């Protein structure tokens, strides 16, 4: 099972082994990770699942869709070059060890 590392703003880390195919927002909910709201349930409509992907791993991910890119303009915390929406990233074996940092706020 691929592993995701969630890093809280204070540096606390949670390492979660997850089923392939689950997205990063769902995985956070399953593992009770704080800091991801996921208000719209993963339908790319709310931007409350904002994460910062480790800059060294950002190229492993598929490009943002137009909808994701537009929603990222409305995130509560600072948008950065490595900003993504957790519900739009499906885990797969090639992403094993993916590190995502949580912003200090989602709303
Ligand atoms: S959960 Fe709403 S955009 Fe990701």
**Number of DSSP helices?**
2
Do you know the CATH topology?
Ubiquitin-like (UB roll)
Number of domains: 1
Numbering strands along the chain, what is their spatial order in the largest sheet? 2-1-5-3-4
Beta-strand fraction estimate? 15-25%
Shape-level CATH architecture: Roll
Number of strands: 5
Mean of pLDDT: 97
Query: Taking Cα atoms only, what radius of gyration do you get, to the nearest Å?
Result: 12 Å
For the report, how would you describe the main beta sheet? 5 strands, mixed
CATH homologous superfamily designation? Beta-grasp domain
Gap between N and C termini: 31 Å
Task: Write a brief caption for the model.
The protein is α+β, with helices and mostly antiparallel strands. Helices cover about 15% and strands about 20% of the residues.
Structural description of this entry:
Strand 1 (3-7) and strand 2 form a beta hairpin. 13% of the residues lie in helices and 20% in strands. It has a five-stranded mixed sheet with strand order 2-1-5-3-4. By secondary structure, it is an alpha+beta fold. The protein has helices at residues 24-30, 66-72; strands at residues 3-7, 13-17, 50-53, 83-85, 98-101. It is built from two helices and five strands, in the order ββαβαββ. FE2/S2 (inorganic) cluster binds next to loops.
């Amino acid at each position: 099972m691929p592993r995701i590392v969630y890093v809280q703003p204070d540096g606390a880390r949670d390492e979660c082994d997850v089923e392939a195919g689950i997205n990063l927002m769902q995985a956070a909910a399953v593992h009770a990770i704080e800091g991801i709201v996921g208000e719209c349930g993963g339908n790319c409509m709310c931007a409350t699942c904002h994460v910062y992907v480790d800059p060294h791993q950002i190229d492993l991910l598929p490009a943002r869709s137009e909808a994701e890119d537009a929603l990222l303009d409305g995130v509560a915390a600072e948008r950065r070059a490595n900003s993504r929406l957790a519900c739009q990233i499906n885990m797969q074996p090639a992403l094993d060890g993916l590190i995502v940092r949580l912003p200090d706020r989602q709303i």
